[in-house]
Structures are given as C-alpha cells and as structure tokens.
Design goal:
The complex is a heterotrimer of chains A (about 290), B (about 325) and C (about 300). Chain A contains 13 helices and no strands. With about 290 residues, chain A is mostly helical. Chain B folds into two domains: about 5-220, Rossmann fold, CATH 3.40.50; about 230-290, 2-Layer Sandwich (Alpha-Beta Plaits). Chain B is of the alpha/beta class and about 325 residues long. In chain B, a hairpin with a 5-residue loop joins strand 12 (about 250-255) and strand 13 (about 260-265). In chain B, helix 4 (about 110-120) packs across helix 5 (about 135-150). Chain C folds into two domains: about 5-220, 3-Layer(aba) Sandwich (Rossmann fold); about 225-290, Reverse transcriptase/Diguanylate cyclase domain (Alpha-Beta Plaits). Chain C is built from eleven helices and 14 strands. A six-stranded mixed beta sheet of chain C has the order 6-7-8-3-9-10. The mean pLDDT of chain C is about 90. Classes of the chains: A mainly alpha (about 290), B alpha/beta (about 325), C alpha/beta (about 300).
Chain lengths: ~290, ~325, ~300
Amino acid sequence: MGIRDLGYKRYEGALLPHRSRYRVLIRRALSLAWASGLTKTTIILGMFPPVICGVYIFLKHQAMQQEVVQYLAHRAQVQLDDPGSLVFTCIYWCQIWFAFVLSLLVAAPAISEDVRTGAFQFYFARPVARSHYLVGKVAPAAILVAIVTLAPALLLALLRVGLAQSGEEAWRSTSWLVGTLAYGPIYALVLTLPAVALSSLGRRSGSLQGLWAVGFFLSWLLGEGVAAGADLPYVALLSIPTDLRLVGQLLYGIEPAYDLPWYLPSLVLAGLVVGSAYVLVRRLGRVEVFS
Amino acid sequence: MSEPRVVADRVSKWYGKVVGINDFTVSIGPGVTGLLGPNGAGKSTFIKLLVGALRPSKGELQVLGERVWGNRHLLGRIGYCPEHDGIYEDLTGAEFVTFMARLAGMSAEDAARRADEALERLGLAKAKDRLLGQYSKGMRQRAKLAQALVHDPELLLFDEPLTGCDPLARVQITQFIKDVGQAGKTVIVSSHILHEIESMTSEIVLLYKGQVLAEGNIYRIREMIDEHPHQIRIECDRRRELGQKLVLSQDVRAIEFPDEGALVLETHNPDACYPLIPRAALESGIKIRSLTSPDNNLQAVFEYLTRERSPEGVARQGRAA
Amino acid sequence: MLLEIQGVDKFYSAQVHALRDVSLSLPEGSIGLLGPNGAGKSTLLKILLGLLPPTGGSVQVMGFDATTRSLDLRQKVGYMPEQECYVAGLDAVEMCTYAGELCGLPTKEARERAHAVLAFVGLEDKRYMKVQTYSTGQKQRVKLAQALVHDPELLLLDEPTNGLDPRGREEMLTLIRQLPERRSCSIILSSHLLPDVEAVCDSAILLNEGQVMYSGLIADMRGEERDTYEVRVKDGAEQLAEALQKAGCEASMHDGALWVHLPPDTDPDLIFSRALEAEIQVRHLSPLKQTLESAFVRLLEQQEES
C-alpha cells in the first residue's frame, strides 16, 4: 500500500570470493566470442572434418566399402592401419585452419581491444587482480581452440577404443588417446598464448591480427620452404606450425617429417610459450590503468 | 550596436537532408559574444561556415562585410582556435605559431616576430622552444589561441577554448579573451559550459535544433521570458511579516517560503518590485541579509528556453522577434 | 576516517617526483580534488585505488591498507573514469551486470542491480543498445552506473561532467548530489570545473606539484569577508558608490559589481536606504564570498611567491 520509493537502493546481498573472477571473466569472453558470427561459423565448420574422420574410422572398421576406402586413403596418403596417424592427420592438417582462425578472431585482439576502449579502467578499478585478467584473456581462446582440436580428437580416439574388438587392441588404441590428451593442451597454448602476448603490444587490433597471421604463415612458408629447398632441416624449426606438427608426430608415434633430435621442436615450443607468458606479465605489470 | 561584423540572413546548411542549421538570421557585433546550445544545435556547423570550411546551402552569410566561402583573402582577417587537438606535436610552440602566421600570408620575419609577441602575450614566452607534445593541456590551448591572433585578425572564433584547462589557466585565458573583446575585436566563443561564457560576456546567441532561439543580452532575454516570472530571493528575519507586506502589491505574482530564513517572490514586473522590497523592509525595521535573483542567470535562461516549449511560449517568441 | 595518508612519496623515476610527503586525514563526506595539470591528482587516485604502491609512506582508505588489501578496498570503491571506458560488444545492461559480477555479486543480483542503477542514471530507454554507439552524455552516464552497481562506500569521480551540454551537466550533478543522502557514501570529485566542485563538495584537497596546498573545508578556504557586501544595481552604480562613501563606507567597483565595506556595527540597511534616496534599484546584495576559483588562484599564487 502506498507509493514506492524507486530511487537508489543499497545492496545487502551476498558477495562471492575473489576466485569467482576467473569464471566470470572466462564466461563473459566466451559469450562475447560466440556472439560473433565469424567465430560461430568457424566452430561449426570445424566440426565437419572430425565427423568425416569419425565416419571413416567407423566404416573402415566395419570393413565396408574397402575399395573406396583404400582409394581415398591412398589419395590422402594416410597409413590406414595406423589409426593414430588418422587422428593426427585430422587434428593437425584439418583442424589447424579452424584453430588458427579462432586464435586470430579471439586471441589476437584480446588485449588490444581493451586498450582501445579503455577497459583496463573498467577491470582494474574493481577487485580484479592481474592474474584474473590474464587467465580471463588466454583461457577463453584456448578453450575455443580446444573445442575444435582436443575435443574432436578425444572423441575420435575414444571411438577407436570403443570399436576395438579385443582387449589387446583396445589397449593398443589407448596409446594415442594419451597422446591426444597431451597434444591438445599444447596445441591450444601454442595457438593462443603468443597471440594474446602480441595483442598486449598495441591498440590496433587489425594490425596485430595481421601481424599474427603473417608471423604464423610466413614462418611456415619460410621454414618449410627453406628446409625442403636447401635441405636444411633445422630451419624448419622456425616455423611454429611445423614444430607443432613434429611434436604431434612424436606423441602419436608417427614417423617425423624431418630428421631432427626429438627434443628440439618441444624446446622451441616451450620457449615460445614461456616467452609469451613473460611478455604478457611484463606488459600487464607496466600498463597504465588510466592516464 | 555598432556595425555588425557577422551578418547571417536566412542561412541554411543541410548535409543531404540532415539539417546543420536552418533559416538562421543573426548579426554579431564587436566585443565578446557567446555561442551556446545543446549538442546538435548547430554550433559547429555555424563556426565552420564562418571560417569558410563549409558553404551555405542557402542564404547570405557576410563576415566582415564580405562573403567568406572561397575568399582566401578574408581568411587572413579571421583567427580560428579549433576544438580539436593533437596535431603538430613535433613542432615547438614558436615554430607552430610562426607556421600558422605564414599560412595567413605573413612574411618570414614578420611571422617570427609576431609569433614571439603572441606567445609572450599569452604567457608562453618561456616555453616557446619546447615541443607542443610536451605542453600541458592549458599551455596547448594557449598556443592555439596564440596562432589565432598572431596575424591580428578582426574576427576571432574560439571553439571550446577552455577544455581540459586547469582553473589557473581558465582564469588567465578568460581574462585574455575579455581583453581582446574590449580592444574592439569581434570574438565569438562557443562553449558547453555556461559559467565560462557568463564570466566572459553578457551577449549570447543561443542555438537550438539548428535555429537561433535567442540573441542579445542575457538579462534582457531573461526579462522577456514571461512563462517564468522573475524570482527574487530575500534572506531576512521576520520573513512572513515581510511577505505579508509584499503580498499586497499588485506586481507580486506569488510568494514562497522555500527554506528556513528565506522568502522568494515572483513577479512579472521586476522594476516595480525591486524598490518595493527594501522600502517595505525599512518601514518595518526588518533586516535584510541578502537579496538575490536565483534565476537571473544564463543557466536559467538556457533551461527555460530549451525545455519543451509551450504553445504560448512559441507564440510569444513570434511577438518578440 | 575516510582517508589516512601519512608521508606518501611517489617517484616514477629519479627525476619524476609525482608526490612529495603527502599527508592527509579526512573524514567521510564529499571531497573535491583540485589542482593544476600535472599536480599529482591521478597519481593520488591510483594510489587510493590500490593500483600503484607508494614509494614511501602509508595509505589507509576506509580502514584498509591500500597496498596490502587492495582487492578488498576496491570492493568498496567505485571509480568513474575521465577517459573512454567500455567493453567492446556489450550493451549497457551487460556491461553493468559484468561490472557487478566482477565485484563479486552473483549473476542474478548483478543483473537486478544493473537495471536499477541504469534507471537511476536515466538510461532506461537505451539500455539494450551497445555502449559503443552511445553519445558522450550517455557514455558518461554508463560510467557512473558501472561505478555504482556494487553499491560502493566511496565514489571516485574524475571529471564527471566532461563533454556534457548544460542540461546534461545539471542532471549529472543532481545525480551525484543525491548519492550521499541516499547511500551515505563518500565522494571524491576531481575536476577542473570549480563550480561543479562547489555544488557537490564540502571539503577539498588542493594539490600542486605533488604537495598538498590545502586540505579542509571549502567554506574555510573561501573565507567570508565580514561586513563586506557585493551589490549590483540596475543603473547608477557610481552614484551609489559616492553616496555610500559619503556615509562612511568603502565602496569600489569590480567587474560591474560594487563591493561595499560597511563601518563597524552598521547593517546593510544603510545601502538600501541610500539607494532608495537616490532612486537607484538594488538588484543584488549579498555578503561577499570568494569563489572557490579565486581562492584556488590565490593559494597557488601564494605558493609561487614563497
């Protein structure tokens, strides 16, 4: 009864602990990313190759349409008897495009957009620590990349294990299940951490995205081109995608593309990841929250 | 008013179908005139027309007796201090003002000499050899003002001259603008911040939705706003007794007791009421502590005129014009 | 105590000494933060938010040590920045909800608060539109809204009326003035527009070159000249001045107004009676008060001389 006071009211509710910020930041970034049509399309399209591979594994296992399968396998230059190779081919050769596009769309502009819109003042004038922020920038991109790489690969691996007709076959198949579990996170980190580190360097998202694309593909072209043409396999280490490939081949027990000491590609990638993390922490530490 | 320096006669400027200003008629003479209005009222459009950056779609615009569009010679007699910032960061103060002077057509030696004088006048003599990029906001505003008057123009246009300036710079620049106006130049100052304009001048041009809503002296305009009768606030003891005496006068439209110790009187005839009040107080021995007109200022004029105007108000507008 | 700052120094480098031995002790209330550009105001604000550790000295804000408990401190502080501040791709409701969530409010509560706070600042009609499409005035309001979502006890406002047209400015100042009454929060308002500060604040901190020039009530800073009145008349100011001088007052002209210093034990009635005799209309009479602006300039000039 009576007239209500609609003015400013106090807040007397509960408050969540500081660690809830991780969840809040990641959730919001994911929903923003999903809101973009391009990102949505990329993820959805990225589901197709794994589905095709899955169907293929299933068919092959059912020994149906052998000739067609043999023919296709021959065309794809895939060793059919080695399912690990198939999963690897899928996760690397097919999915890297989608993973890269996602890292371009989500990771590369992550921090530069915030610099441009003055969002640092928004975040850091609140009880948000720099660690919350950092995780909140890298994790969403890594999660999206994992959705198109780790998740399908895991499902395919599980499918193969599930289709095994004997305990021994199942046991053999789990080896590259484990490989996938190791490879997935490395993949996600390599594709997102350097991109986010790059995005902390400036405010023009477009230029930084371009820089990431150039860095990625140019290194690929140069690395592989020079290595093949001049027969200098060590040069191939300069190419990020090649290093990723070599590490994957190692984990899946596949014949490596280049004759190099087994630890070198891992070392290069580790260096990249650690270096990016360092750059990020330094840049954020020095950021002028507001001028 | 002496010979007006800016005359606009039914000037309109449209961007396609979007109106910048519509059917503008105004004349501005020497001294400082404030140009104000809500966002989107047409202030920037008008200023750009005055500096020849835009051409009127319709109507006649005469600046210093000549048409300004395409008239390069006339631009040498106009000084413009724009709102935007951030260019020429790598020039020193002296280089910047000299450069602008040369653009206005001065010879190299004249330009350098006048630039020094202008910077001196604005208190930047010591800083003139530092890069503009290192200047504080107040100093940058002053450098822009210096380049606007280095060629001693007759008409000066200042677009938001006090933005970002600290209070010290504000006081100095305000005084400077007043001095320039007193020296006989025509100065048009556009600003959002009413008390800035009030401290510089009493002559204004009020724009609203692309048209001139009012022009002239603030206080005369206030007197013309009939829907809002003049308010006089009296702080005294025995206020109700004073109110009792005042209410008997025909000129008093209403009496209010808004808060402790004060009485507010409304009238359509301030000339009759102002002498009435002290007379009534002195007769009864009531001590008046203060006598003020709370809404006899630019803020009130602005508010009353730009709120949704009533049909009577609109009709009265026609009469006054 | 709202602020307890002792001996705070801040060096950005060996040459850049942003704050020198700043000591302040201020109770709750509305405080203006004033000073020329480069005086150290933003540095002080950053230190108050716990974002910048001082090189020396101690800072306690609302009882929290700003260096060790900065996260808890920021729970209770709302900051309205001067510069552009929004998160790309969000509309006003989402942004304010996000702001609340980042302060620890559960999502549902945050959303409820977001709507309430947007209504308070007058953005109900536009709340579902993306913030990047807003006009300057609307962006200012969103900035205020996001500072209020978590119901802070201390509000830091940095040039809140920046870019607003006269009506917008009035509305913003009205909103800000309502807050201490409704919520009993404290306000620190940093602005170059001294009339804004006068309209909202009771006390002020004046910084210059990293040092505190003044900290206390604005009324004390201004000072009132006893027995001196500012008088404006319709016509005949000089006449009145002469008449008053004959009656024993000191009268001088200042920019269109008459400053009259009355002899001891005299009422302003004297001014009225002389004016009535000479048939001069007195339109304004009030005790002469310095404006904050002139007090500010005076304090700075005093410092320059010493």
